[in-house]
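@channel sequence for tomorrow's demo:
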Amino acid sequence: MPVLDAYNYSLLSIPATFVIGMASHWRAIYLSSTSKDLPPFDNRAPRAFLAKIGELSKTSATAREYLRAEAAQTNVFEQIGLYAAAVLVGNFARLPVSFLNKATLAYVALRAVYCVSHPDPPSLAPSVSCANPLGFASAGCSPARLSRLCSS
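structure tokens (generated this afternoon):
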């Protein structure tokens, strides 16, 4: 694609990934503010609030969905440091711009799909969930891990 060759968009994928992680958190806050089963989100003690929701998860499907949305957000933030380092290393190593753009676009797209699919409906069996394969696939799109493809 000529559009991906014209400019190095790979550095812009780092804040895009951050926004994707925040969107999962905002979804959880929206769930807590609109649900009758959950108390309103408490920003003063978010970990205590998460523990309170964990206790409610035995009886409330909304609480389980809230916990899955927060887990998706946590997963993004746990990986963003490594991902940002991989993007920077790829840029410092002067990998081809087209390759960096395609790898980072794939990562961001898979992270977005992961965050949307992670809070799957409770009616699905855990083995049917597509969140785990999507998480592994997005981790494999890291430019540092894929740089071997360019050098061979």
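heads up for whoever presents: The helical segments are 3-6, 13-34, 46-56, 61-92, 97-117, 131-139, 143-151.
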